[in-house]
Amino acid sequence: MSQVPPQPTDLISELLTGMRLHGVQYRRIQTGPTFGLGFPPKPGHAYFHYLAVGTAILRGADGSQHFLSAGDVVLLPRGEGHALLSDEDHPVQCLETIVAAPLGEAVSGIDTCPSTHAVPSAVLFHGCMVFDLGGMQGLSKLMPAVMLADGNATAFPGLLPMVDAMKREVCSGRIGYAGILARLADAVAAMIVRDWVERGCDGASGLVMAMRDPRLSLSLLALHRDPGRDWTVEALAAESNTSRSVFADRFQSVIGTAPLRYVTELRMQLASQWLSQQSLSIEVVAERLGYASQAAFSRAYKRVMGQSPGATRRGRALASA
Predict the structure, then answer these.
(1) Cα separation of 51 and 72, whole Å?
(2) Residue 206, SS3 per DSSP
(3) Using CA of residue 165, residue 170, residue 173, residue 179, what is the dihedral sign?
(4) What's the CATH superfamily of 9-203?
(5) Cys-Cys link to 239, which of 118, 219, 263, 273 (CB 3.0-4.6 A)?
(6) Is the distance from CB of 52 to CB of 135 less than 8 angstroms?
(7) Residues 32 and 112 sit within 8 Å (Cβ to Cβ)
(8) 276-296 per-position pLDDT tens digit
(9) Could you check whether 9-203 and 213-320 share the same CATH topology?
């Protein structure tokens, strides 16, 4: 029985499978009748909000406003500063200055209700995490500053039962609810990103066109599965069952860069992730990515990333200190 060949959509699935939201902190927030919560900029991170009860206004860093109602989910993939408000003119207090009570590992609770007996006007689950797209990290720079999903909308099939589950966990406070919420948040964020990719990334990237192109997607899938292979243009073209010249021209016209330059940039994105988030040694990263020597890898890394691999590792160590 012959094996079914990979389909173009396999690449999208592969890349979304590699998406990771490394939890930094989660909060369950209950508010009083009026509120203004400020969220400072967090470069390299993403903000996640799920509004379980009530309404709110999200004011972006550029002054734009998004009106939220119960069931709405918001992802801010670039970690831009913003505020959640009960009304447009309410003063804003930075969330990091509000005392939070620990609810579990990496999860805390904030209650701004004026009385312990008051019914909160809004209940939300908030997360701030490292947003890791692996070899597709460049896509995060192309994403909208605010990505809003209506849990009741038909545009997001499958989202409604997930946000319903989140609401039950947020409101119940049952044992272990914080960890369950964190896992649901990861899945919901992945669905939001998938929807954006499937809609063509708002026309932002030729890479999405390549994912849907049968002549290119097979090569890209093979490359992303095995970035350390000794790739040549001929080898990539062979994965797509096309000639070298046809493949190279098609790759350049759709993605906007030469095939081997794309290979190098993908490897350096992965290297940055492995060095900064997984704390792998430079020697191990160089070997994984197919470089014959650590020196050759370091030269390529500095040329693409603008700093040495060692500087990336030191930056990780300083951030963790």
Answers:
(1) 6
(2) helix
(3) positive
(4) Jelly Rolls (2.60.120.10)
(5) 219
(6) no
(7) yes
(8) 777 789 999 999 999 999 999
(9) no
User: And the tokens for 201?
Assistant: 């990334």
The SS3 assignment for 277 reads: coil
d(CA 162, CA 184): 7
Pick from 320, 226, 316: which is nearest to 275 by CA?
316
What are the domain boundaries of the chain? 9-203, 213-320
Q: Percent of the chain beyond pLDDT 90? A: 29
How would you label 259-271 residue by residue, b for 16+ Cβ within 10 Å and e otherwise?
beebbbbbbbbbb
| Whole-angstrom distance, CA of residue 321 vs CA of residue 302 | 24
Answering whether pTM is above 0.70, one says no
Class of domain 213-320: mainly alpha
Of the CA atoms within 13 Å of residue 231, those in its CB half-sphere come to: 25
Closest CA to 51 of 23, 22, 29, 76: 29
Helix, strand, coil distribution of the chain in percent, nearest 5: 45, 20, 35
